[in-house]
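Next comes one such specimen:
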Amino acid sequence: MIIWLSLVLFLLILKIFMGNLREKRKQKNFLIISGTMIALIMGLRYPDYEVVYDLRLYYDFYNQIINTTSWTEIFLISRFEPGYVILNKLLATIVPWAQFILIFEAVFCVYCVSRFIYKNSEYPFQAILFYICLGTMGFQLTAFRQAFAMSICLLSVEFIKEKKIFRFLLTVLLAMSFHKTALVFFPFYFIANRKPNWKNNLANIIAMVICISFAQIFTNIGNEVFDMQYGDYIGNQLGGLIPILIYILTIIPSSIFANESKNNIAFNMTGIGLTIYLMRYITLALERISFFYAPSIIIQLPNAINSEKNKGTKAIFNFLSIVLAIALFIYRLADADYADYIFFWQ
């Protein structure tokens, strides 16, 4: 736990040292320094957890690829999507060291998130802190294939802004080659720039109700298309309340200050993320699908907070959001398998 808390402390000290981050140059420097530290901590971990076996699975697969010379054989030794398999083969050919897949995944994911922040937020400190504390980084620590797919989808957001649909489609197709469920990001091209006015917000609520009502049907279709076996929800009905609360605390002030909204794309991503996340109560696996849209929170939550006109109130909201985010991170570390950090050489 000490390493993860030291990472948060490092960010706080870095922010104090760098001061105001209004200039783009300073924002870029902040993201480079903080992103480098995050990537190092993510990438230099020992690959064994007591409960979560995904990390070891990807580590061992990289070892298998190192010892597999035939390109045809690499597709026979796993059920992974072709993009992920090919990436492992290319990396293993260059760097035949299994720890490298952890390092590469960390660098790639942190780069994509940092770029997403740089292109879409004026508040990089809050954004990178929320990335660490609110769940996105934690998910990327073990869910490698989906983490790659999520990160690639974040890159595709710029093509939405530039109205380059062909490049957007190719990028999401690339993401699907790492994790099939990236398919859920395709519709976002047509929704991304909708303004958060009352008509669109009402339409969003209606769409949310419809999606939740038909969640089981969507799940069955997904099982058929992707040859999967996602089942009904089984588990604690109180599970997921904290993420839902974070979504709500992001969306409500964003709707109130719609006229001051600095990023319609992040607002719409957040709404879709909440809709899919609520569908977890029908099919738990859809919780993981919502993570394709969840990174928008790290952009939209600071936007929502800083839309407040009163400087004193804004300062209080910023302080509370930072304190609560860190408190949530500490609370989750108490039960997280990755909390007891071990470097790979220990």
In short: The chain has 17 helices and no strands. The chain has one domain: 2-333. The CA atoms of residues 216 and 314 lie 41 Å apart.
